[in-house]
Design brief:
Length: 49
């Protein structure tokens, strides 16, 4: 579990601070942010059609 947290912290740093992330890091951060935000949007708002 500690290794996964360190990986996530390193990915966040590379994506948002340094800006030199690879595709795998970008995908992890996208999923980390997309899933909770989309769930909240579906629960509270309504989808634009």
């Amino acid at each position: 579990m500690d290794a996964k947290l360190n990986t996530i912290k390193a990915d966040l740093y590379n994506v948002f601070v340094e800006g030199n992330a690879d595709r795998q890091q970008l995908a992890r951060i996208f999923l980390l942010l997309f899933i909770p935000l989309m769930s909240l949007y579906i629960a509270v708002g309504k989808m634009p059609y």
